[in-house]
Write the structure tokens for this entry.
Amino acid sequence: MTKTRHHPPHIYLDNAIYFISAHTYDDLPLLTDKRKQELLDLLFNLLKDYSYQLFTYSIVPNHYHLLFKIAQGDKLPDLFQKLHGSLSFKWNNEDNQRGRKIFQNYWDYCTKDEKDFWTHFNYINLNPIKHGLAKDLNQLKDYKFCGYSDSININGEDWMSEILENYPIINFISED
């Protein structure tokens, strides 16, 4: 286990399942659909490079969430340095705003057990509804920047309904 100075401190565990949350600086809505896709494309490539197993994700205009299993926990900072650094450089050049801070640091949390895993899984998948980007589960299927439809395509709607019912999100309020 390795620690670095961060508040809260990052804790890097091997073969752990991490819930990750990263916000844009000052929560600015900088993640357009084009940039969400660029984030996803780079993220998918990096996850392959690091042999991480992605369970689900969601990206909204000012933040994103991930749920994945990592082989080597101490590689986590490198992944986010590459992800955030590459995208910040690209987007700042596009916007002619060199030096602008795009992302806050990321927040990480290791799931404790099966219930914790599935509750975070559901929270991530339903996040676009919370932020008004989809009105309901039917619209969520069409939201391109979330793993909800991927999960349905792999496991079926009955499976997804069972996961949502068995591991409900408590105090989940839409922000629209």
